[in-house]
Here is the input.
Amino acid sequence: RGEMAKILVIAFNLDISNHKGSFKDVAGKAVEPYVETLVAYGITTGYPDGSFKPQLPFHEHIIRSLFSEY
Here is the structure.
């Protein structure tokens, strides 16, 4: 999820979000601005425990919804 966040932000030329701190498990990591950008655009969300789980796979339905919107 973390690496795919970066790929999607770059591929769709999304404006990088300056927001920080939504997810405890990406705070301060290289993927944080990309994850925060996808959240700001309403493309993805985190988990109820306040994490994003960047190591998990990115679900196909997220990618499909992106292509239908952009």
